[in-house]
Amino acid sequence: MEWEQAWLAYRPLKGCIYERFFRKCQVPWGDPCAQSALRELTQAAKGLFGFSMRTVAEDPGIILAFTREPSLGDEGFCLSAEGNALIVRANTGKGLLYGTYALLHRVICGQEIPAKPLRERPQNPLRMLNHWDNIDGSIERGYSGRSFFMKDNELFLSDRTRDYARLLASVGINATVLNNVNVKGNATWLIDEKYLPRLREIENIFAEYGISLYLSLNFAAPMELGDLPSADPLAQSVIDWWQARMAQVYEAIPRLGGFLVKADSEGRPGPFTYGRTHADGANLLARAVKPYGGRILWRCFVYNCQQDWRDRKVDRARAAFDNFMPLDGLFDENVILQIKNGPMDFQVREPVNPLFGGLQHTNMMLEVQAAQEYTGQQRHVCYLAPMWKQILSFHTLLGQKDTVAQLVSGEAQGNTNGGMAAVSNTGDDANWTGHDLAGANLYAFGRLAWDPSLSAEGIAREWIALALTHDAAAAKTIEQILMRSWPVYESYNAPLGIGWMCNPHEHYGPSVDGYEYDRWGTYHRADHLGIGVDRSAQGTGYALLYNGVLAKMYDDVDACPEELLLFFHHVPFARKLSSGKTVLQHIYDTHFDGAAQVQGFIAQWESVQGAVPEPIYTRVLARLQEQAENAREWRDVINTYFYRLTLIPDEQGRTIY
Ligand code: GCV
Fold it and tell me: Is the beta carbon of 182 within 6 A of some atom in ligand 1?
């Protein structure tokens, strides 16, 4: 299948003041990342300006040069315009590569390359994608086609593997987990000699772009791959098995970054079976990979998925905290706990996971989902950078440097074992992300992982200039659509933080009671008088898991932020919000408004015709039309449900069925 180049398309650029610099360059030999930078510059010169760039010894227009500046670290760079040259300096080839992409992006976005050196280094040590690609080629929660790494129980390589690595490196992503965290069947064998040679080939390409390869593994591998009777993390036979296996794996792929593990979660095996803790499980693996410099990323998405909906005392939102807080400080230094942004599961609105601000002696990283499982499945536009910004800037009230960004980057604790991961939204669709506008999410994830202080608008503007258009009016229109898209999606979905009113399993389309009488711990608890889950001190006590005034705020129905009201409290439909509207009227109004706004997106998009390339224009238009139809469906199903439940009509007398 053919594929496009997303934001590395290098379409012709007219009137660029830096064009002349692109004729000749000087790049150090021998370093693989520096050579990748050279290839990128050459490709860019051809696409942007239509000529071939030459490498020269004298009088270069672009210079990539090694330097020794401790403040730049292993990944930072320095960029400047000096005399007749644009110069990128870095301590490493990786830094030169990142600096080269920064140079290219500034040139394409029409930004100045200053004479005074611009210094950058990433905030997060690990900036990682998690693929949920299965070895048969399907992708769990994948909305952009099939896997471009796996098919029919085989791994494969193509030119697309390199283009994938280029896309990642161009936004500073430095690690990737190739396979789904639900490791089953043949995927368990990825750590076997059957697959290791091919993985090594893939890893070699990634290394040319500064990307570390990680794999997900099956905790029960000693039983499924070996012939041990148990996977008990404290059994000597199991310890020996993992050590021998890791020796084999690292002999084949010495630079392998490590492993991501989903254990005791949604039916996956784990240490609980043997009465052991998650620390026992994680440390077992951490010790096996430690001699090779490997890391274990251990997921905190652990909860009881066999809940009884009648039982109001068990609260899934508490699960990660209750499972992991008692283990704080017990994990080895090469273990990182990977924590989903919220306590539930990537809903359109959730509070920040209280493990951030809870854990004090454990490495951690933030997991977000670029794949839009609950946010429109890449059929609806939903630019997630504004949501991620809210999470990253959330003050947990733990110590001086207390934002989620400061905690996960290791800045707060002064360590380098942390970062950000995103569940990838890619697949083998020509445009990589199904919805063209979902490309903005992949781009934004990399940029925010590099620098969480960047603004969502600024990132959107960059991405639009790189991927879509230089037409100022069209760019502004597209930026407006992106920036409105999350609030609009939220407005026609489950209201006020309650989440989950979607069709079970596929998680697309409205179904208010879809999860209400199920075992997954995801309820709205509505009756004809009121709605919401009581997570206050009188309810499940979840609100009290936060620090200080945050706990007070969430616990108090009058102080709780309204966008999370129903997440934390069960309230009457007649309760007045700050707008003066009742909760019920708010539900009606937001759903009418959300559906209308999507219709508005269509008109806005139609105005950019001619300013963005075909076939992107047509593809996006088709998706927006589908979104408009679906938004009307959401509006009518949700509003009708609450009207029939309460028998209270819409104050404005609009049609509710
Ligand atoms: C990979 C949610 C998704 C699952 C996913 C799981 C996880 O429950 O629906 O498909 O499994 O999260 O994050 O492990």
Answer: yes
Sequence-distant (≥ 6) Cβ neighbours of residue 50 within 8 angstroms: 12
How does pLDDT run across 250-281, given as a tens digit for each residue? 999 999 999 999 999 999 999 999 999 999 99
Distance CA 509, CA 637 (A): 10
Active-site residue, selected from the candidate residues 266, 311, 333, 651: 266
User: On the CB side of 512, how many CA atoms lie within 13 Å of its CA?
Assistant: 22
Q: Calculate how far, in angstroms, residue 262's C-alpha sits from the geometric centre of ligand 1.
A: 10
Distance CA 392, CA 245 (A): 37
Q: How far apart are CA 218 and CA 269, in angstroms?
A: 7
Give the Å distance between the CA of 41 and the centre of ligand 1.
39
Helix-strand-coil percent breakdown of the chain, rounded to 5?
40, 15, 45
Q: What is the DSSP string of 526-584?
A: --SSEE----STTTT-GGGGS-HHHHHHHH-TTTS-GGGHHHH--EETT-B-TTS-BHH
pLDDT reading at 1 higher than 80:
no
Concerning whether 629 is annotated as a catalytic residue, the answer is no
Establish whether residue 181 lines the binding site of ligand 1, counting it when its CB lies within 6 angstroms of any ligand atom.
Answer: yes
Task: Provide the sign of the torsion angle of the four alpha carbons 375, 379, 381, 386, taken in this order.
Answer: positive
Q: How far, in Å, CA of 640 to CA of 584, rounded? A: 12
Residue 291 pLDDT class (50, 70, 90 cuts)? very high
> Tell me, what DSSP letter sits at residue 178?
-
